[in-house]
Structures are given as structure tokens and as C-alpha cells.
Amino acid sequence: MSEPPFSEVLRNATWGDHESAEDESYLKALMAGSLSPEAYGEMVAQHYFAYVALESASRSLAGDPVAAPFVIPELYREEALVRDLETIYGSGWRSRIEPSKPTLTLVARINQVATWPGGYVAHHYTRYMGDLSGGQFIRIELEKIYGYRPGGGVDFYRFDGIGSLPRFKNDYRARLDALPLDEAEKRRLIRETRLAYLLNTEVLGELARVTRPEYAA
């Protein structure tokens, strides 16, 4: 009996962590239309800090044989996040945002594994594949709730540069399957992916805490 592809192993091993990341009161309130644009902007801001760190690691690992297939400039989110923050907060957005403690922990971990290709792939998979999958449903709902259109507001969920999303995600899984890693390193990557989900879940938990007075009113 042949071994399942690594992309399937990774997905199955982290599915519970993925579901926990989605089952947060902040996202429920957001999807219910209970939050102001500024409270939504709190999440965009935390994504901004995380993606700046991840994309910095991406550029530094461009020549690595393990990481290189996952250095995909068409996915980079920083410019889109800047447009979104400008739309939400105006031209002075930089003075309106700061990383939460869980975001600082996440960023520190991304920076820590920036020289470990497997760790980079783990965080890359967690963030980008999440935004390419469930993030697309979130985008559609937020467009209805806030009236955002292309050009700012939910642009970080738009991946216009990669063509067909289903085709790209299949290609991404093929890149995971082709990773030149031994079993021990694959297990290490899976552990890091689970940690990445946990850290991202803690970011959402803090967002729920700071915005709860708004949607509890």
C-alpha cells in the first residue's frame, strides 16, 4: 500500500488545529456584521505585522532548495494590506496600529525560524493557504457587510496574480508533496505547523478580548 502524499498527511495532522483557529468569537462577531470597520481593522493590522515578517523571511530564503518553491511573490500581501489599512483608517494608519502581544510572539517565532526552510514552509502554509481557502468566504461576507470593493478594504484576500485558485492550490499541494525532506524533518514541519495554528489562534483570541465590549453592547 502506497504512502499518502505529504500534503494529505500535513492536512490531516493539523486539521483539528485548523478548526480551532476558525472557531473564535472574534470571527463569529465579524461574520455576523457586529463589528465596526475599525474593529475589523484590528485583524488587518495584526495580519500586516505577521505578513511583513513572513515575506521578509521569504526573500532571505529565495535561494534555498527547500524553501524556494514556496517563495512566490504573486502571493505577497504587504502592499494589499497597506491599501486595506489606508481604506479603513486613512492616510495616518501607521499611527493607529500596533502589534498585540500574541502577534509579537507570532512574529518572533517567524523571525526565529527564518533560517529554517521547513519552519518557513510551515508558517507559509498556515497563513497563505488559510487566506486562499476560508479567507475567500470571509472576503465575500465582508464585501457585503462593509461595502468594500477592489482597491482597499479586503484586498489582502484577493489573489489576482495567481490565476485559478483551485489550480494554484493543487499546484501548492504538489510542491508540498515534492519537498526533499526525510521523515524526521517532515514530522518537525508538522509540529511547527501546529504551533503556527496555535499562535494564530491566540492572535484571534486577543482580538476577541479587545473588541468584546463593542459586540457585547
UniProtKB/TrEMBL annotation:
Metal-binding found in the keyword field: yes
Keywords, in A-Z order: Heme, Iron, Metal-binding
Superkingdom to which the source organism belongs: Bacteria
Name this protein carries in UniProt: Biliverdin-producing heme oxygenase
